[in-house]
């Protein structure tokens, strides 16, 4: 039975992915900073009969905390085969109004946090002599486009996308591992619209700019993540799949 570690796994897309993998019979470890939300998510995971589940409270910005989290997970669930780097932080702010602390806080969570969890997993794979693992990183289309007011997140996600492709090559050779990314579009029930749109009219504008005419769901992201990590996709490596209803392609919205 395979084990997956999902950071930021207590809510939104992270929780949806955890529920999907657990339903499919995987052992699931979720991690995050908020103990209360982790325990709420654990209640839902434990209601699913297949697989085992644990929650670990830690901060992805702290490398040693990431190491200790993985140690707890492997002690309880055995070798960890897969990782979803889902923990994120973002806010809208004109770049000239951005403080150095605001810049650093997002970079530390998104880019450094992704590196920290990925690196400790690589060390784990090396110790366990584990091959055929899978890593899925969550990015955004402004990693290769642009996004006014989200400079730190855009820069961090661009770094994550490059790290994805770099390790797809390096760790493909070293571990037979696959490293891929998902770029979600506007997704309902995640809080993203609340953070990135200050008015209900802005939310509706974003919805109209999606060619399929709606926001995506966390469950659709979870289905894609499971498919990408599954044995069906053993040859998928170094790719970024946009699941956004065609949103990022819409250069001239109606």
Number of continuous helical runs? 8
The biggest sheet amounts to: 7 strands, parallel
Please tell me the overall pLDDT: 94
Strand order of the largest sheet: 3-2-1-4-5-6-7
CATH topology: Rossmann fold
The total number of structural domains is: 1
- Estimate the global geometry from the Cα principal axes: globular
Number of strands: 7
- The CATH architecture category equals 3-Layer(aba) Sandwich
Structural class: alpha/beta
Report how far the terminal alpha carbons are from each other: 48 Å
- What's the gyration radius in Å? 18 Å
List the helices and strands in order. EHEHEHEHEHEHHHE
Low-confidence blocks of residues: none
What is the CATH class? Alpha Beta
Share of helix, binned = 40-55%
Give keywords:
seven-stranded parallel beta sheet, Rossmann fold, 14% strand, globular, alpha/beta, 254 residues, 8 helices, single chain, 7 strands
Notes on the structure:
The protein has one domain: NAD(P)-binding Rossmann-like Domain (Rossmann fold), CATH 3.40.50.720. The mean pLDDT is 94. The termini are far apart. A 7-stranded parallel beta sheet has the order 3-2-1-4-5-6-7, sandwiched between helices. It has 8 helices and 7 strands, in the order E-H-E-H-E-H-E-H-E-H-E-H-H-H-E. The longest helix has 29 residues, at 100-128. It has helices at residues 12-23, 35-46, 63-77, 100-128, 151-175, 192-196, 200-208, 218-229, and strands at residues 3-7, 27-32, 53-57, 82-85, 134-138, 178-184, 240-243. The chain is globular, with a radius of gyration of 18 Å. It is of the alpha/beta class. Helices cover 47% and strands 14% of the residues.
């Amino acid at each position: 039975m395979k084990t997956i570690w999902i950071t930021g796994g207590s809510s939104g897309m992270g929780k949806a992915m955890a529920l999907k993998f657990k339903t499919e019979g995987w052992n699931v470890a979720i991690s995050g900073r908020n103990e209360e939300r982790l325990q709420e998510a654990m209640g839902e995971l434990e209601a699913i009969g297949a697989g085992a589940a644990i929650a670990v409270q830690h901060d992805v910005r702290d490398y040693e905390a990431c190491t200790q989290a993985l140690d707890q997970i492997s002690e309880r669930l055995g070798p960890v085969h897969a990782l979803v780097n889902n923990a994120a932080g973002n806010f809208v702010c004109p770049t000239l109004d951005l403080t150095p602390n605001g810049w650093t806080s997002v970079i530390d969570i998104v880019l450094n946090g992704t590196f920290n969890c990925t690196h400790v997993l690589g060390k784990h794979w090396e110790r366990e002599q584990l091959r055929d693992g899978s890593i899925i990183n969550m990015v955004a289309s402004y990693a290769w486009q642009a996004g006014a007011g989200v400079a730190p997140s855009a820069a961090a996600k661009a770094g994550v996308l490059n790290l994805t492709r770099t390790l797809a090559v390096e760790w493909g050779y070293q571990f037979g591992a696959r490293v891929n990314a998902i770029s979600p579009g506007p997704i309902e029930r995640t809080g993203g619209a609340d953070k990135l749109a200050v008015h209900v009219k802005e939310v509706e504008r974003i919805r109209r700019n999606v060619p399929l005419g709606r926001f995506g769901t966390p469950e659709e992201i979870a289905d894609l993540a499971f498919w990408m990590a599954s044995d069906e996709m053993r040859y998928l490596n170094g790719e970024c799949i946009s699941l956004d209803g065609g949103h990022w392609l819409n250069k001239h919205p109606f």
